Amino acid sequence: KMFPQSPHFIPLLESREASREMSAVGLMLIFSGLLEVVKDLQPEDPISSLTSLNDSFAELEKHGFDVKMPVLRISKLLTLRDKQANKMEELKGAEKVTAEKESLKTKWFCPIVLCPAALGLISMH
Questions:
Q1: C-alpha count within 13 angstroms, C-beta hemisphere, residue 83
Q2: Which helix H or strand E contains 118, and what residues bound it?
Q3: How many C-beta atoms surround the C-beta of residue 21 within 10 A?
């Protein structure tokens, strides 16, 4: 209903006539079911699921299904996931740099703070 289709099922011409009609109906049901899956996709869904959906729509496209809209949504989610992964790598790098700076600060802060106090104690006695 949401995506008017004009499937041609030309690849099914290679199938036996007895199974051709049932195969066509099956493909229409698969297409409809996959549209529901795409509608419910979330940004945190596994990349493997998104890739599998893309592959399924590529197969349906061979039978004349218009798959532009669902594939576009999947592509946007894959792009989002890629950007998310890049940001996580940047964050890990920043956390590492911060930890290194904290380590250096602690390393140099203690002697500067403790040495004058120790010197003060030594000179007082």
A1: 7
A2: helix 68-124
A3: 12
Q: Is residue 115 part of a domain?
A: no
User: Is residue 24, in this structure, part of any structural domain at all?
Assistant: yes
Domain interval for residue 74? 10-93
Write down how long the chain is: 125
Q: Give the total number of structural domains in the chain.
A: 1
Give a yes or no: residue 38 inside a domain: yes
What secondary structure does DSSP assign to 53-67, as a single string?
Answer: HHHHHHHHHTTT---
Residue 121: its pLDDT value, please?
A: 56
pLDDT digits (tens, 9 = 90+) for 1-54: 566 676 666 766 677 777 778 888 899 999 999 999 999 999 899 999 999 999
Buried b (16+ CB within 10 A) or exposed e, 34-71: bbeebeebeeeeeeeebeebeebbeebeebebbbeebb
**Chain position carrying tokens 């120790």:** 118
DSSP conformation letters of 72-85: HHHHHHHHHHHHHH
Asked, for residue 119, whether it belongs to a domain, the answer is no
